[in-house]
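Q: what does this look like with iron/sulfur cluster bound?
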Amino acid sequence: MDQIEMKQLAIVSGKGGTGKTTIAAAFASLAKNKVMVDCDVDAADLHLLLKPKIVTQEKYFGGRSPYVDLDKCTQCGCCTELCRFKAIDNGVVDPVSCEGCGFCSHICPENAIMMKEAFSGDWFVSETSLGPFVHARLGIGEENSGKLVTVVRKKAMEVAQEGGLELILIDGPPGIGCPVTASLTGVNLILAITEPTLSGIHDLERILKLAGHFKIPSMVCVNKFDINLENTQKIVSCCEKDGSRVIGRIPYEPKVVEALVNKKTLMNYPCGEVQRIVREMWEEVENTLFPFPFNEKLGRGDRDRGC
Ligand code: SF4
Ligand code: SF4
């Protein structure tokens, strides 16, 4: 049998609350032979739907913060005066305001300040009923989420290689900042979830531009498309302009919210037409990631086989 290459799909959105994680969890129900990754480490919530059982937990030390030797400190006030973030007061550091720049360690006349690696969060490898899941929790007030995303993605790659898994399914962070960039590098396909609002269109344009910058093919899903048909049409035009394509239009469906309240993926809750639309979207994505002949050889055409 031909060897199949591991593929990575990132599900992203210009901002939070567009249904990105809902679609990611639904795809997790439909995809076979995959590892799931929650790269939204600032506000992780995929675990609420996947109900993971933690197998491995590791601490992540990503940033640096000043450590002050109070025996050496003469309370001269230099650090207080010169820290532009007002994060240190005569040797006492405010960890929330501190940006870890290290400047104070250079200007302390007593050499009382040393920069040390700081705890930034935890990452986990878990088991779920849908397969392995790699996720993380950023420490309170920590901002190195891009680095933590990179750690989580690396771990997911290892899990996939060890398990002979063909797909890494990434629930990406919202926005277009550093964590998003860290989530997108090296992926094979982006699925952007948007809503037909003016801000949704604006955010989508930014995401598609980012995808274009990295030369990653992108597809688009318009969630709650029927709340504004005019804006949905604008999204279709915007995608055509950017060489992307709308592969799914999901209507507003209160049952989807009900599913989330009940901590179910929408494929495991009676969500009417939405299930069919999401299934068709997944088929489109799967056929793009694993074009013929791999689909046939691996039995990927058998949609009912489950995970
Ligand atoms: S600059 Fe050094 S010696 Fe002066 S207050 Fe700060 S830590 Fe203490
Ligand atoms: S590391 Fe930078 S931000 Fe933090 S206390 Fe020192 S000078 Fe201020």
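The chain has two domains: 7-60+131-301, 70-111. Residues 68, 73-79, 90-91, 108, 110, 112-113 surround iron/sulfur cluster (ligand 1) (CB under 6 Å).
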